[in-house]
Amino acid sequence: MIEARGLSKRYGSTVAVEELSFEVLPGRVTGFLGPNGSGKSTTMRLLLGLDAPDAGQAWIGGRRYRDLRWPLREVGALLEAKAFHPGRSAHAHLSALAASNDIPRSRVEEVLGIVGLGAVARRRAGGFSLGMAQRLGIAAALLGDPGVLLLDEPVNGLDPEGIRWIRTVLRSLAAQGRTVFVSSHLISEMALTADHLVVIGQGRLLADSSVAELSARSVSLEEAFLELTHDSKARTS
Amino acid sequence: MTTTAISPAPRGRYRFPQAVRMEWIKLRSLRSTWWALAVTVAGAVGIAVAVGVNTRDAAADLTNNALAGIALGLLVTGVLGVLVMTGEYSSGMIRATLAAIPNRPLVLAAKAAVFGVVALAVGEAAAFIAFFAGSAALPEEVPAPALGQPGVLRAVVLGGAGYCLIGLIGLGLGAIIRHTPAAIAVLVGGVYVVAQLVAAFAPAIMPYLPIAIVANSLSVVQPVPIEGQLHFLSPWAGLGVLCGYAAVTLVAGAWLLARRDA
After folding, report:
1. Which of B34, B43, B113, B244 could form a disulfide with B73 if both were Cys (CB 3.0 to 4.6 A apart)?
2. Mutation site for B-interface testing, chosen from A79, A85, A145 by largest number of B Cβ within 10 Å
3. Min Cα separation A83/chain B (Å)
4. CA distances, A211 to each of A132, A150, A199, A208, B171 (Å)
5. Which of A221-225, B49-53, B156-160, B180-184 comes out lowest in average pLDDT?
6. Position B144 in a domain
């Protein structure tokens, strides 16, 4: 389970996230929805302890991220495509991460197979397409077989086949009882993938409800989302 | 899709050995690491041979002559040290690293240990090979120095250690500055350019500059004063000061790494 309480973060004079509180429960896919620049990536970075919040706190399974004993075995994260050194192979990249958390080497081959990068695993990853880079990021997230997954815009750069693949992956991970938190600005994709939605705009929580509930607020999920985010802009400007 | 269950999480938690294993795999899996280290050794040996062949004065510090390539090759290990850290920022790898090992000072300590040991091993290899190659290249009429003579072994060993210490200063600067070009500029400026300015305008602090310590304290049989006024540090004092510089940059880097957003 992921828990955020009163998270606030500003960069200089820009408020990225303000008083953000929500919970992400296991066993379902929770979509994290918001327009570009609404604070989704900042929230992900706060959850992972990469950026320090100005106020508030986040817990994963009851602990702050930095207190996790084997972080990669508890939380798998995809933050941005190409969070790897271009001169290193996919195999070396994953081996280094595996070593950091005492994950057996055999698991590296396994996740490379799962994401379909087995054939190119020994090549310099700098030559990867955005789709392949995204698959390597997902392989890194799955490496420790974690109970919690945080994925920031995982469908970016994937082709239609890849998008369907990631949807199936996310749903089966949730079905195994894992906590799956996945951000996107694509409402249609979230309508297909997510069971529950956390919607933010301008760094503030706009909705925390099931996909069905949110859709019922308007003629469609898309309409409901646009009304929500439009209202939040009108209030702040 | 199936996720095969892996072996249950071991007891305990990640610690220094895990961080070291991660950093060792990272360092050795980049081709640029091996190129840079090969260039370091080749440069030291090439310059040693060139200086040896052209030596006429048997009274000179022939050991220091054979180690003349170190002062230039330092730049390569220094830049490699910078890249060990800044390469993580330019690629975005730093976020994967810190998600795996959230204890940031531990990450930098592991980088310093792994890179320090590799740079020390390669630096010593470069110094010893350069010493023997430079000695062998001397003309017949100039007797070659021997490791058994006073101060010679110490000069070769400390000269080799100079690579490692400049490399660690580079690593610390990389952690402080985070951007590759800026960190390299500060390293090169601090080690080479400042030395030129100081020599011209403030010769009194010259003996404390890293380049002067390596060239005139560490890699000499006996430090030689310039024109009777400028006294370089003794080899061991020079080693202590250089270690101090490396420690200060690494501690400052760790402090900033722990406090700044990644």
Report:
1. B43
2. A85
3. 4
4. 30, 19, 11, 9, 49
5. A221-225
6. yes
CA atoms within 13 A on the CB side of A208: 11
Residue B66, both tokens:
């054979």
Q: What is the pLDDT of residues B149-198, one digit of tens each?
A: 999 999 999 999 999 999 999 999 999 999 999 999 999 998 888 878 88
A-chain CB neighbours of B87 within 8 Å are 85
Within 8 A of B3 by CB-CB distance, chain A residues are 114, 142, 145, 173, 176
Of the partner residues B14, B87, B262, the one whose CB lies closest to the CB of residue A85: B87
d(CA A209, CA A198): 7
Residue B178: give the domain boundaries: 16-259
A191 touches chain B (CB under 8 A): no
User: Is B98 in Cβ contact with A50 (below 8 Å)?
Assistant: yes
Smallest CA–CA distance from A102 into chain B, residue: B18
Question: Does residue B7 belong to any structural domain of this protein?
Answer: no
The Cα B51–Cα B128 span in angstroms is 15
B6 band by pLDDT with thresholds 50, 70 and 90: very low
Q: What domains does chain A contain, in order, with CATH numbers?
A: 2-236 (3.40.50.300)
Lowest-confidence range among B176-180, B200-204, B230-234?
B200-204
Closest-CA distance of chain A to residue B46, Å: 28
How high is the ipTM of this complex? Answer: 0.94
The answer to whether residues B64 and B220 touch, using CB atoms and an 8 Å cutoff, is yes
Dihedral of the alpha carbons of A19, A23, A24, A28, in degrees to the nearest 10:
-130
Q: Is residue B2 situated within a structural domain?
A: no
Helices (H), chain B: 16-28, 31-53, 62-66, 70-91, 93-100, 104-136, 152-177, 180-188, 194-201, 210-212, 235-259
Q: Which of B7, B11, B26 to mutate to test the interface with A (most CBs of A within 10 A)?
A: B26
The predicted model scores a pTM of 0.94
Angle at B223 between CA B217 and CA B229, to 5 degrees: 110
Residue A181 to residue B233: CA distance in whole angstroms: 60
Nearest-CA distance B106 → chain A (Å): 12
Domains of chain B: total: 1
